[in-house]
Amino acid sequence: xxxxxxxxLQVVLPLVASPIVLLLxxxxxxxxxxxLVSWATFALSLMILARVxxxxxxxxxxxxxxxxxxxxxxxxxxxxxxxxxVSGIGAFVAWFSPRSVDLEIRHRAYGYFYAMFLLCxxxxxxxxITGDMFNVFVFLEISALSSYVLISMGKDRRALxxxxxxxxxxxIGATFFLIGVGLIYQMTGTLNMADAAVRLDDVKGTRTILxxxxxxxxxxxxxxxxxxxxxxxxxxxxxxxxxxxAFIAATSTKVSVYVLIRFFLTxxxxxxxxxxxxxxxxxxxxxLIGIVTASLVAVFQNDIKRMLAYSSVAQIGYxxxxxxxxxxxxxxxxxxxxxxxxxxxxxxxxxxxxxxxRVGSVHIDDLKGIxxxxxxxxxxxxxxxxxxIGVPMTVGFISKWYLVLAALESGLYWVAGLILLSSxxxxxxxxxxxxxxxxxxPPEGREEVSEAPLAMLIPMVSLALLTIVFGVTTDYTAxxxxxxxxxxxxxxx
Length: 493
Hints:
This protein is mainly α. It has 20 helices and 2 strands.
């Protein structure tokens, strides 16, 4: 029975659980319930991925209204992969969260925080699973509105203007996206993605569809924080509560990148997006500029969360670079980096959350000597940092390997060179943290700081270990990403 309704349960479970949290009173009950829902959601996503790999694309008609008349949930390898990432990060963050939330969230807002967390999780999963264009907008707004609230709930007063800037820019991006969807509906009379892809063949040359393509591209570029539309991201990640930074950094931009891929290659199609519109020469320079400039800015950040935020802008550039190359190898690199970066950045932000829990700061000067006092947490950060650099046997190496290969296949040797250069810049900002953590003495009065609690260490270390496991064994990441890329480009395996 559950097998028949896996797709809808993936979204309904956290969505229904969100208001139920508000009815609970005791903190232990709230966190236990959230943890149970998060891990159940993760289990559902793994079951969905397993079925997709065995059976192919899955479809679920809401209310038994057959598509394209009704809303369809449609899952292939690409969005099944994204579902596993989003739900998995949600499960690990929920496990990590209780002690961190106790410290960083006002006590009276405890229930509201977890309600918004589950709502954000449901929205992110809904974006990835729906086959209806207007539903994408609805879930984008559910995810975004709950994110604004989550960011603003921290005790740091700078979180409020950060959330407000995110709200303004996020709303503009969503509005652009909705205008694009409306224009497609005007010309095709359908909101179903698969149906629109067929009907668009007759109207692709019209100015209306060209405008729709432009609105959707710019709108989602804002949502993914593609350079130079990234101004909301550094403060949003930097000043949010630690668990919020970890969750949205590992999931929010990733589902938006998924939407870009879906519209470019499924709705509009490769020939239109990369043939007629030469999208490569729009995305490629923006991606490369973002990779280099954001990495350079990260080097000079003294707040480690803001450093990681600028690093995220650069890493988004890698994903978009893979998309822009529009080959099987390039798309494989972009898709696998979407997943790999979620693991790395989740581990890194959770490590910063553990350090903040013990030290009360993530300023680089306050991390002096932290390697001896919090060895497991610091080692977790180092492993995540090695992934960002792209050291062999980490997931970051796998991503960059595919991107370099794709650049070489396209004859863009200078692009491959810039990818390698950006890795050297990543060495600079990761090394700054390693240097103060292991080679400097702790500041006066903080010699007695101890390791983070076990409940925080287990999910954090688990994500770090996965960055190594999937860096060595790539069948379950790069293999799925390659199959998804071939499917998107209509190339047989």
